[in-house]
Amino acid sequence: MSTHELVEMSGYCLAAIRARGLRVHRVERLREFEERMRALGMPDPHPMLSARWNDFPGGQAAGLVLTRGGQDVGGVAAHYYDLGRQSLGDYWEESYRRLYGKGDASPVYEPAPLAETTITGKVVYLGQLFLTKAERDGVVSAALLRYIQAFCVIEWTPNWLYGFIRAEDVERGKAAQFGFTYQVPFAQLWRKEPETRFSTEYLVANDRRHVCHMASRLVRDPVAYVPGYATVVGEQKDIMKSFGGFDGP
Q1: What is the DSSP letter of 39?
Q2: List of the chain residues with pLDDT < 70
Q3: How confident is the model over 75-117, as pLDDT tens digits?
Q4: DSSP letters of 52-114?
């Protein structure tokens, strides 16, 4: 793992976000993060990433809050935990029985092979992505999701990072824009779909190697691979021109 390249990737993503007049702030307590996002209009989070349903020991969860002019405009959260030898699919069936179920049977079944047999060990769940309408141009969310993946690998060195994206958003290219290599439809089937969860949703994921690979390519040509970074370069050229130190196009 090249920590240096991950740090570089983080810097490029933050620069792209700052070029749009935004700042990123880390919030240690997920309950505070939820309250701030709820004040912006975010619906109640899924139980699996909600401080109402879970205790998050110190250092095992974080929220990243976006601000403009000191005012919150969005954010995204992460939860780190260790599955040990248990698969992600088994974890879903057991934890969802507590979080969503009303009986002995798990509310989900037939997890996709990636979850059932491949994703195990130390994982980070990414969720609660929310932006106010004025910030939903696609560039900010893409830079933020790439940033938080680098952040999580540096912070926790997980084996896997994963989240869920609605089918219609994947079809619009969101998963690729966010930098996810694995995009698995019908990740799990629900016996009865709860509000905001669907059998059609995609499991999106990266293992640590893919995040490091993304960083190694991204730092070679950030203009091509970092959403919004071309704006940063343009601003730098304008500054140089204003001082008479740049003769490029």
Answers
A1: T
A2: 1, 53, 102-103, 233-249
A3: 999 999 999 999 999 999 888 888 887 667 788 889 999 999 9
A4: TT----TTSEEEEEEEETTEEEEEEEEEEEEEEEEEHHHHHHHHHHHHT-SSSS-SEE---HI
How far the first Cα of the chain sits from its last, in Å, is: 37
| Residue 93 in tokens | 């069936």
**Encoded amino acid at 157, one letter:** T
Nearest to 201, CA basis, from 136, 89, 113, 112:
112
Q: Which residues of 36-61 are buried (b: 16+ CB within 10 A; e: fewer)?
A: bbeebebeebbbbbbbeebebeeebb
What are the pLDDT digits (tens) for 50-67? 777 677 777 889 999 999
Using CA atoms, how far residue 32 sits from 38, 49, 50, 167, 207, in Å, is: 10, 13, 11, 30, 29
Which residues are paired to 68 by β-bridges?
A: 71
